[in-house]
Each structure stands twice: as C-alpha cells, then as structure tokens.
Amino acid sequence: MTHSYEVFLGCAIPNRFNNYESSMRTVAKELDIELIDFEGASCCGTVVLKSIDETSWLSMSGRNLALAEKRGHNIVTPCNGCFGSLKDTAHVLHDNKAELKKINEVLKKLGIEYNGTTEVRHFVEVLYDLRDQIKEKIVHSLEGLKVAFHPGCHLIRPSNVAGFDDPELPRKVDELIELTGAKSVSWGFKLRCCGSPLLIASEDVANKILIEKMESAKEAGANCIVTNCPACHTQFDVQAYGLKNEDGDVLELPALFITQILGAAMGLDEESLGFELNRVSLDSISDILGI
C-alpha cells in the first residue's frame, strides 16, 4: 500500500542538510511512501516570526496549508520547526474561526483559501506507523550502537498542539531505533532544548547548553547522537565539532539523522544515505554501521 504526502522540506534541509533529505527519500522509497514535491512552498513562517507578528506568521503558514489542501494532499515534513509552525497554525485556525476568516481575507488576494482539512505529520510519525514493515526489512544489525536520541522541542511541545503527551513520541522513536539492534539509552537531558534557537542571539549561551547536553549523553554511555531536526543537528554535528568542556574533555559524538540509521540497518545504499556529508567523524562507529 502506497502512502502519499506532499513533502515540506523547509529552508534548512535543502540548503544545509542534503544527507537528511537524501536518506529520507531513500528510506521512503524502500517503504513505498510517495513523497510528492511541494510546489510553490514558501517559508513555514517559523516560530521566530510568530513572536514578532502573529498575523504574518499565520498567513505564511496558512498559505502552505491552503496550497496542499487545494491539491487534496496532506503534508509530511522532516523538519521540527516546520512541523511546529504548520501544525500550530492548523490548530489555531481550526479553533478560532474569527482568525481563520481574517487569514482567508489575506489568502483571497492570492486566489486561495484554507478550509482546515490539511493534516500535518512529522516524518517520524509516518515511520512509526510502518514499524512492522521496517522490522521486516532490517538486514544489518546495529548492535553495539548506543544512541542518545534527541527529539527536539517542536516535535513534542506544546503537547495540546502536537497531539500527544511529551514523552509519547520520543518513546515511539526509541522503538524505531531499537528495531535496528541499537540501544536507545536513557539520558537525563534528553528532553531539554539543544540551544540552537539561541545561536542567533548568543553563541556562548547556546554552546553552554550544548555542553550540558553532550556531557549528559556521554555520562549515559552513548556513542552517538540521533536527531530528527535540522536545527538540532546544527548543534550536534556543526557546533559540537571539536567541542570541549572547561576541563578540556572532547565532547563531540557522531551525530546521525534517524533516517540514516534506519537506512543503514535496512542495507540501503551508503551514498544515498549521505554519510559523507556528516561533519563529525563517523569512524568510531563505522564498523557498526557497516560503512
């Protein structure tokens, strides 16, 4: 059975993380998930714009929802920020008819309107629905991989918008990780922010938060980090490159996208999974990954 979605990549993934897009498309193809390229997509609006001008945020995000709705498609996105923005907008416009009317006055100038029927899902939700199919396709055990999984904030908060309690979806992704034979370790700072949003205001503060996260992951015995968010991955695979604490301890760990470890366990083409684009060296876990 083919599952079809319009895929909303957002800004960061096609510009900075081709390994996430490529591994997502490779895994999707193997699982018979049809990803329809989103024609006419604009920025999701982002939570940053929401804090400055909510009407502009709702209009930008609502435009994307309306385009998918007009074509009769639901949206899937691999980006936490886009998921949070699109999902939150759909939530606001569903519950506030006056706001929906106001936003449709803006969209009317573009020849479109939004009626509130577009479903927004994160790609990990789609993957979890297909966990039995994934399990059947595992051909290479990742036993020995000890994963500190970082879900990111906008995947799980606010819970009334995301549609589940904070711990629920991370546990589901933990299940996906452990289908591969890897161990998803319990670590104290798992649900804390990675610090990425603060990079534009204070890199020092963002790095202090990151140091606490990395120390927590290492104390839990993790030998890699796994994310499902490009902004969070910026912290773990860019900012963490060569990162040390005040004692001079090296804190970097290999950082992978969830689609990369699933693809490795499914025996998918190494190049299409984009491992060569990861910044922090994967040498310490390359034998486990089979690369």
Low-pLDDT regions: none
User: What is the CATH architecture assignment of the largest domain?
Assistant: 3-Layer(aba) Sandwich
DSSP summary: helix tally: 15
Overall radius of gyration: 19 Å
Helicity range: 40-55%
- The computed structural class is alpha/beta
* CATH topology category name of the largest domain: Rossmann fold
- Number-wise, the strands total 8
Mean pLDDT: 94
- Tell me what portion of residues adopts beta-strand conformation: 5-15%
Biggest sheet architecture: 4 strands, parallel
Number of domains: 2
**CATH class placement of the largest domain:** Alpha Beta
Shape: globular
Structure description:
The chain is of the alpha/beta class and 291 residues long. Helices cover 48% and strands 10% of the residues. The protein has a 4-stranded parallel β-sheet with strand order 2-1-3-4. A 4-stranded parallel β-sheet has the order 6-5-7-8, sandwiched between helices. The longest helix has 17 residues. It is globular.
What's the short story on this structure?
Helix 12 (230-239) links the parallel strand 7 (224-227) and strand 8 (255-257). The protein has helices at 12-16, 18-30, 46-50, 54-70, 80-95, 97-108, 123-129, 131-137, 159-162, 168-179, 203-219, 230-239, 258-265, 270-273, 286-289; strands at residues 3-7, 33-37, 75-77, 120-122, 146-150, 183-184, 224-227, 255-257. The chain contains 15 helices and eight strands.
Give a topology summary.
Elements: E1 3-7, H1 12-16, H2 18-30, E2 33-37, H3 46-50, H4 54-70, E3 75-77, H5 80-95, H6 97-108, E4 120-122, H7 123-129, H8 131-137, E5 146-150, H9 159-162, H10 168-179, E6 183-184, H11 203-219, E7 224-227, H12 230-239, E8 255-257, H13 258-265, H14 270-273, H15 286-289
Parallel strand pairs: 1-2, 1-3, 3-4, 5-6, 5-7, 7-8
